[in-house]
Protein 1
Amino acid sequence: MKTILIILTVFCLFACGKDEKDAGPELEAEAMLHADNLAADGCRTHVTLHYGDLQKQIKYAPDAESAAKIESFVGQSMEKSAVITYRLTGNKKVVECGWGSKFDAEEIIIDSIR
């Protein structure tokens, strides 16, 4: 009986210690948040770092929960600048754009927007 309890306790500790979504360390950056603008030949919701410098731009695709945060923050405007804290998930996503174009981007989880 003790053996079973020990095994169950160890299993529970490992299960509780694992994050819901495997993600990297939390990062912070100034970013341009783009709302879903596919209907007007834009792109689905995405995030751009180094927005003002085309040579350094990095585009990320938010997970579903983070996309909702972006839509709420941006509101009626199509894009808005903010400081975000985020984590890379290690997954890739395809961001759909108008006229059948698309781009691959790393997926992120946004923890906060300010």
Protein 2
Amino acid sequence: MNRLPRHMLALLLVTAASALDRPAGAAPAQHPSHTALPDGPVVLTQQPGTALDQTARRLNAGDLAAAAKRGDTPVVLVGSAPLSTRPGETALFVQLQSAALCGSAGCATSVYLQKGHGEWSKVLDSVSGPVSLSRRTHGGMHDLVINGTDRWVWNGHAYRDTMPAPPMDDLRRSIERYQAQHPKPH
């Protein structure tokens, strides 16, 4: 039996409840834009018809078109935050939610910085989990904290993870031990 993942079921229930909460024919409520503050979470919400929503849809047009070909209509969540220490430079956070686009780790969030009028650059791609701004900065940009512990820092062009990858020697030894304990049948 096919089941919706728990996070999608919760989203479906919240969406249905909000639709039932308004009179028939009434337009959905416009959600206020939530701007994160240093040392705070980036709040992602549906903001249909807003400039943030339109920009998010344009930047993710390929993923949205591919989903439409599969008969899927992802929910577009957006948020903004002042990543730069310079006033007025705000980032766009985008998360597409659908059964096909979200995995066991949840739905991925991407972060964009505006380079010029109407031009955006992706500076962090596809992280899963809640995103918060840190008071700490690198290169004039606030660090991002994913899932409460995974710190990403600005390297001058994009954000990079600070969690070290597992040492290759340990991985190689682990594979060799496993292969020695589980020989291939001939």
Protein 3
Amino acid sequence: MTSGFDLDHTSFAVHDALGWARRLRRELGAVPVCGEVLPEFRYLLLYVGTADEGGRLELLEPVADGFLTRFLKAHGEGPHHLTFTVPDLAKAVGEVRSLGMTVVGESYGNPAWREAFVMPDAVHRTVIQLAQTDMIYPDPRELVASTARDPSTLPSVEGATQPLWWTSLWDTSAEASARQGPTHLASSDLALSRRLFTEILGAQVLERDGSLDLSWPSGSICVHPADAPDAPDAPDAPDAPDAPDAPDIPGITGISIYGGPPQPITIGSARLAGGS
């Protein structure tokens, strides 16, 4: 596929991002990548891995009433969305719409982070964020070796402030060095999932045991078959999906973690647990 496609991160809605980050740093060795504050929420992007292998996950915390407080009130803490970077956002949006999927929240004015949101449907029951940026993250070797972060070089959401709000996380010692593996996503239509993730979002794919193993330079997703429930109600905002209620219905069900604690870490309906 064309270069420039990547799995940016898997995102979780939580009540206390820094509290969760401290736990993930202690138990998994997570290192902060970047974070910012918006009018309704703040976020913290973490890297879980070594200099050679790992992935990114995001923690979203509300700072005022809005879509995230509504999500947490309705569903509690748990998986919130998947984010992919693409080389041409407008082209990707058009191709996603050609699959019959609904895209909202298009924003093209900020070169550091252009974005759009694919609404949750009966196939994946999670928001899929599409983004285009002219900025890059530090190399994993740099992330795990240094605490220095230069916000001027990193992806940045339009209107965001306080790019170093999270730096007290460095005071928490990393007591482990785990590696983030694939995110697990249940889908009610594997054929549509394959078209979306490979033809439009640039994944390399391997079919195995009735599932799709999808890979990008910075991460991977294992798409499993699921039952097909009725489509969820429309959420309150572009990035507020209906959370999955059980592993056999569509949605994000967890992330494989290699070298982590013997007991899984559970964030709502998702498990961060040892992979095979």
Protein 4
Amino acid sequence: MAKPKKSLTAVERRAEELDTIAAVLPIERRDELAELLTDHDVETLRHLVNQGMGDNTLRALTSDLTYLEAWGLAATKKSLPWPAPEALLLKFVAHHLWDPQHRETDQDHGMPAAVDESLRSQGFLKSVGPHAPATVRRRLANWSTLTKWRGLDGAFASPALKSAIRLAIRAAPRQRLRKSAKAVTGDVLARLL
């Protein structure tokens, strides 16, 4: 006599669905991803795998989506809404691009301590301080892409969001660093050619 099959919880079902695309996702994070991602998120990822998206691109999208879901839960106590309202996008910018000097005198400036602690305890934040502008732009771009794939329009191109990003980058005294300690200069390039 066969045993009756136990009905799966939503998290267990998502974990099983993630197993179907495990070839491109880190298996050690399967349970964490199943808890953080929604059914729609998993379905979107499975669709991308089936359509032939590159493994690294899919991993990057999954990583950013997982971070965004964790941040959304920590910041609003709710899963990300689709499409995200402009106010939530502005909150994301305010939490991630802030002025460390201003934070010394105003502890409420930037990412709230409770959100920071939540993300840090889950392993999503490692360094102290604001995020790199390129990281924030990439995560917003991936959020926008995932919104479009769901057939929705977001506020990612709004003048307020673009202005907030531009002004936040200007306000934070972030020193531009060279990508290489030994940059290729004109004289070195001339010798090579």
